[in-house]
Amino acid sequence: MSRGNAVIEALLLGTVSVAMVVSVILGAVRMQAAGEQAEQAARHAADVAARWGEASDGADAARRLSPLAGVTVVRSGDRIVATVRIEVPLIGPAGSPISTTVTGRAEARIAPHRSAR
What we know:
Radius of gyration: 22 Å
Number of strands: 3
Order of helices and strands: HHEEE
Oligomer: single chain
Helix content: 40-55%
Largest sheet: 3 strands, antiparallel
Strand order of the largest sheet: 1-2-3
Protein backbone atom coordinates (compact mmCIF):
# COMPACT_ATOMS: atom_id res chain seq x y z
CA MET A 1 0.00 0.00 0.00
CA SER A 2 2.79 2.46 0.84
CA ARG A 3 4.54 1.79 -2.49
CA GLY A 4 1.41 2.81 -4.34
CA ASN A 5 1.15 6.00 -2.29
CA ALA A 6 4.80 6.80 -2.93
CA VAL A 7 4.32 6.46 -6.70
CA ILE A 8 1.23 8.67 -6.65
CA GLU A 9 3.02 11.28 -4.54
CA ALA A 10 6.02 11.24 -6.88
CA LEU A 11 3.76 11.68 -9.91
CA LEU A 12 1.88 14.56 -8.29
CA LEU A 13 5.08 16.27 -7.18
CA GLY A 14 6.58 15.84 -10.65
CA THR A 15 3.49 17.26 -12.31
CA VAL A 16 3.41 20.29 -10.01
CA SER A 17 7.15 20.88 -10.55
CA VAL A 18 6.79 20.71 -14.34
CA ALA A 19 3.80 23.08 -14.21
CA MET A 20 5.82 25.61 -12.19
CA VAL A 21 8.80 25.44 -14.54
CA VAL A 22 6.56 25.84 -17.59
CA SER A 23 4.86 28.85 -15.96
CA VAL A 24 8.22 30.53 -15.34
CA ILE A 25 9.34 29.86 -18.92
CA LEU A 26 6.08 31.26 -20.31
CA GLY A 27 6.51 34.40 -18.18
CA ALA A 28 10.00 34.90 -19.56
CA VAL A 29 8.79 34.41 -23.13
CA ARG A 30 5.94 36.90 -22.58
CA MET A 31 8.39 39.48 -21.23
CA GLN A 32 10.74 39.00 -24.17
CA ALA A 33 7.96 39.33 -26.74
CA ALA A 34 6.45 42.38 -25.04
CA GLY A 35 9.88 44.02 -24.80
CA GLU A 36 10.45 43.58 -28.52
CA GLN A 37 6.96 44.87 -29.28
CA ALA A 38 7.48 47.94 -27.06
CA GLU A 39 10.85 48.73 -28.67
CA GLN A 40 9.42 48.38 -32.18
CA ALA A 41 6.39 50.56 -31.41
CA ALA A 42 8.57 53.23 -29.78
CA ARG A 43 10.99 53.26 -32.72
CA HIS A 44 8.13 53.57 -35.19
CA ALA A 45 6.46 56.34 -33.17
CA ALA A 46 9.68 58.35 -32.97
CA ASP A 47 10.32 57.97 -36.70
CA VAL A 48 6.80 59.00 -37.69
CA ALA A 49 6.79 62.00 -35.37
CA ALA A 50 10.25 63.11 -36.54
CA ARG A 51 9.33 62.84 -40.22
CA TRP A 52 5.89 64.43 -40.08
CA GLY A 53 6.50 66.90 -37.26
CA GLU A 54 3.64 65.95 -34.94
CA ALA A 55 4.02 64.00 -31.70
CA SER A 56 0.36 62.97 -31.89
CA ASP A 57 0.97 61.25 -35.26
CA GLY A 58 3.76 59.22 -33.69
CA ALA A 59 1.62 58.27 -30.70
CA ASP A 60 -1.20 57.16 -33.01
CA ALA A 61 1.23 55.03 -35.02
CA ALA A 62 2.49 53.33 -31.84
CA ARG A 63 -1.05 52.66 -30.65
CA ARG A 64 -1.86 50.96 -33.94
CA LEU A 65 1.09 48.62 -33.44
CA SER A 66 0.41 48.03 -29.76
CA PRO A 67 -3.21 48.88 -28.88
CA LEU A 68 -3.02 48.07 -25.15
CA ALA A 69 0.22 49.95 -24.51
CA GLY A 70 0.74 53.26 -22.77
CA VAL A 71 2.37 55.62 -25.26
CA THR A 72 4.05 58.99 -24.74
CA VAL A 73 5.72 60.96 -27.50
CA VAL A 74 7.36 64.29 -26.68
CA ARG A 75 9.63 66.75 -28.40
CA SER A 76 12.90 67.41 -26.60
CA GLY A 77 14.91 70.06 -28.41
CA ASP A 78 15.67 68.77 -31.91
CA ARG A 79 14.65 65.22 -31.00
CA ILE A 80 11.49 63.22 -30.57
CA VAL A 81 11.43 60.82 -27.62
CA ALA A 82 8.87 58.00 -27.68
CA THR A 83 8.16 55.70 -24.74
CA VAL A 84 5.90 52.65 -24.90
CA ARG A 85 4.90 50.70 -21.78
CA ILE A 86 3.26 47.28 -21.91
CA GLU A 87 1.88 45.41 -18.90
CA VAL A 88 2.86 41.72 -19.01
CA PRO A 89 1.11 39.03 -16.94
CA LEU A 90 3.76 36.72 -15.49
CA ILE A 91 1.50 33.93 -14.26
CA GLY A 92 -1.84 32.98 -15.74
CA PRO A 93 -3.94 34.86 -18.28
CA ALA A 94 -4.11 38.59 -18.94
CA GLY A 95 -5.35 40.48 -15.90
CA SER A 96 -3.32 38.27 -13.60
CA PRO A 97 -2.47 39.88 -10.25
CA ILE A 98 1.20 39.06 -10.81
CA SER A 99 2.49 41.19 -13.66
CA THR A 100 5.28 43.54 -14.65
CA THR A 101 5.66 46.42 -17.07
CA VAL A 102 8.20 46.45 -19.87
CA THR A 103 9.26 49.71 -21.47
CA GLY A 104 10.53 50.51 -24.93
CA ARG A 105 12.15 53.88 -25.60
CA ALA A 106 13.40 55.41 -28.82
CA GLU A 107 14.69 58.76 -30.00
CA ALA A 108 14.75 60.23 -33.47
CA ARG A 109 16.24 63.48 -34.67
CA ILE A 110 13.73 65.84 -36.22
CA ALA A 111 14.36 66.22 -39.93
CA PRO A 112 13.10 69.71 -40.85
CA HIS A 113 13.39 69.08 -44.59
CA ARG A 114 11.05 66.07 -44.29
CA SER A 115 8.67 67.38 -41.65
CA ALA A 116 5.63 69.60 -41.99
CA ARG A 117 7.45 72.61 -40.47
